[in-house]
Amino acid sequence: MEKRAAAEGRIPCALGGTGDFATRCTIDRVQTQDGLMLTIRHPDGGFHRLRVTKDGRGVIAGDGAREAVVTVIAPDAIEVAIDDVRYRLPATVKGQQRQ
Length: 99
Description:
By secondary structure, this protein is mainly beta. It has one domain (2-90). It has one helix and eight strands, in the order H-E-E-E-E-E-E-E-E. The protein has an eight-stranded antiparallel sheet with strand order 5-4-3-2-1-8-7-6. A hairpin with a 6-residue loop joins strand 4 and strand 5.
């Protein structure tokens, strides 16, 4: 179900420091001269921009000084934390085989 939601532009997120993930954030993808940029929007109007990297880090913060902390949570998924917000994103994790 999460793969279908991601394909439809929705991803699980935990907002405001809660541990409760729900598929309530939306994601927009735009190819720029700097690479693929993701804009993740919250239901309250907040958002973060992430830039997809090709160096194995996954994503980095695309704007501002806040660091994006990336954790591999499955062979095909990562969790990205910025301050008190966490997102679960589909990803190709290097060294992992898809099943």
